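so my prof wants the structure for this chain in the C-alpha cells format not the other one, which i didnt know existed until like an hour ago. anyway here's the sequence
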Amino acid sequence: MEETISGTEAVQIPQQRNEQLLDSAVRYAEERHWDVFPGTWLEATDGTEHCSCGDPACAVPGAHAVKPDWATQATGSATVARRMWQKQPRASILLPTGRTFDAIDVPETAGFLALARMERMELTLGPVTCTPDRRMLFFVLPGGAVKVPDLVRKLGWAPTAIDLVARGEGDYVAAPPTRVGGHGAVQWARRPTPANRWLPDAEELISPLAYACGREAAAERARRA
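here's what i got, hopefully its the right format
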C-alpha cells in the first residue's frame, strides 16, 4: 500500500526552487498527460512576499491564473511546458480540471479521515493533494464533478450542508510544489505513480468523503452550540 503522509507531516514544507517548478510542470505533461499552464508567482519586496498580480488583498497570492483566457494557454506538451517555465521560472503550476481529471475538494481533517477509511477499504485511489489552507483534493475521472451533488443527496446530505466542493470543467487546481503566499506549498498526500494512473470514478469515493465531511460539519455545529 502506498505510504500516506500524516496531517503533521503535511505542514513540513521544503523550500521551493525554480527548477522544481519547471521539472514538475514538464513531468506532469510528459508522464501523466495532464494539461498545465503557468500562473502568478511570488515576488519579494522589503522582505515581504506578495503576488505578482499586484493586488495586496490577493486571496491566493502566487497561485492563480494570470489572465481570464487561461484555458487557452493550457498545454499537454512537455516541450511547450518547458518553454513556458523557462520564460517565467517562478510561475505557479496550475492544472485545469474537467479535462484529464476532476477533483473533490474537502477540509484537511475530513480528507485524512476519509483517506484512512478508503485505504482500509482497499479502494482504488488517484493522486491526492494537500494545500496550505488545509484542504485536500482527491483526483477522480473527468465528468465526476457534475455527478457529485446528486451523489451527496442520495447519501442523505444536502450538498450545501457539508464542506465538499467538486471541481470540474472551467476550474483549475494548483499543483505541487506551488507555494501560496507565506502559508506554504501545495504537496502530495498521495503522489502520482504508475499504480494510480487510472483514476477512480467520483462515485467510488463519495461515500467516505461525504461521511467525513458530514462528521466534520456536525462537530463544527457542536462547537458553536
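also thought this was worth mentioning. The helical segments are 18-31, 70-73, 78-87, 108-120, 144-154, 202-224.
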